[in-house]
């Protein structure tokens, strides 16, 4: 049952984070970018702190290890990732396709950090091929023109690359910390700490609440990102990070664009085309290569060993 639970949570996480691209795009029309990200985690952090008070016996971190884990989450997974991502995406010369492909480098970056910092977290050569196929699939799905990816908005794209690197490094570093802090508590205080850091950055950039336009659309965008994509999404993320490790869980970067495409079709009347189908196919092949051992175990569980060992 555990493997089905992990799969179900993985799909939910991909759906929530994939559809969040629409909410971010809608919200940036009404909020300055860094202030938008900070307000998002103000709300999410308060919600998660309330949940931590309800669900755990340790709503406040204790000791150096627990506060270190919170600091890593606040600095890398929340503040650095979202500041760099939101500023980069706010550049009008950067297309959503280019940003999606750059963010999808996160699993590859995670692998690099894990090889350096977590020797037990390694991939075989075939696994690396699978990850690269997934990345190519995202590029095909986005109908990316390599010439356009490299043209214009260079600084903004480097910022988005930095966001992906910050998230990947944060995922690996949290695994190095020997802490028994409950996920709910770690998430709540990381969000609140990250929000505080983003407010400092927002103030330094001269952003102001006076420029925020309050209406139904802006509040819906903020609410969805705060509750669904942030509070619920990161709760699932940290749970799966503990179960699967940083390499496998960051593969959600490959699946989220698929749900973004479906959401675009459902809400924006964007009809999937041949490139979308090709992207889906490549991503599927990449996942098969990466998860071949788990798939083999599942087939053995379902049908017995008959002939499968010979294929090993």
From TrEMBL:
EamA domain: residues covered: 9-142, 158-290
Keyword annotations: Membrane, Transmembrane, Transmembrane helix
Localization, UniProt: Membrane
Name of this protein: DMT (Drug/metabolite family transporter) superfamily permease
Principal subcellular localisation of the protein: membrane
Species of provenance: Haloferax elongans ATCC BAA-1513
Membrane topology designation: Multi-pass membrane protein
The keyword Transmembrane helix is assigned to this record: yes
Regions crossing the membrane: 38-55, 67-88, 94-116, 123-142, 154-174, 186-206, 218-237, 249-268, 274-290
Transferase found in the keyword field: no
Pfam families: EamA (PF00892)
Domain of life: Archaea
Recorded GO CC terms: membrane
């Amino acid at each position: 049952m555990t493997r089905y639970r992990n799969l179900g949570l993985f799909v939910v996480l991909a759906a929530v984070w994939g559809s969040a691209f629409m909410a971010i795009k809608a919200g940036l029309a009404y909020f300055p970018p860094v202030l938008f990200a900070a307000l998002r985690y103000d709300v999410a952090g308060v919600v998660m702190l309330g949940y931590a008070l309800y669900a755990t016996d340790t709503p406040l971190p204790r000791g150096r290890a627990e506060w270190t884990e919170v600091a890593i989450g606040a600095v890398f997974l929340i503040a650095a990732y979202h500041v760099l991502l939101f500023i980069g995406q706010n550049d009008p010369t950067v297309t959503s396709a280019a940003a999606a492909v750059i963010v999808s480098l996160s699993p590859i970056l995670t692998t690099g950090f894990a090889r350096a910092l977590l020797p037990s977290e390694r991939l075989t050569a075939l696994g690396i091929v699978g990850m690269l196929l997934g990345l190519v699939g995202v590029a095909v799905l986005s109908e990316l023109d390599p010439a356009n990816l490299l043209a214009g908005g260079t600084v903004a794209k480097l910022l988005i690359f930095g966001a992906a690197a910050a998230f990947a490094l944060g995922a690996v570093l949290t695994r190095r910390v020997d802490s028994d802090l409950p996920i709910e508590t770690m998430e709540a205080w990381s969000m609140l700490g990250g929000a505080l850091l983003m407010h400092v950055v927002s103030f330094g950039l001269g952003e102001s609440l006076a420029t925020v336009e309050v209406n139904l659309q802006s509040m819906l965008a903020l609410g969805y990102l705060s509750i669904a994509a942030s509070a619920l999404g990161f709760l699932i993320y940290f749970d799966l990070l503990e179960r699967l490790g940083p390499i496998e869980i960051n593969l959600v970067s490959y699946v989220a664009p698929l749900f973004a495409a479906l959401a675009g079709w459902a809400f924006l009347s964007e009809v999937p085309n041949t490139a979308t189908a090709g992207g889906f196919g490549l991503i599927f092949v990449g996942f098969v290569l990466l998860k071949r051992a788990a798939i083999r175990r599942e087939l053995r569980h379902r049908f017995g060993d008959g002939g499968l060992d010979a294929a090993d």
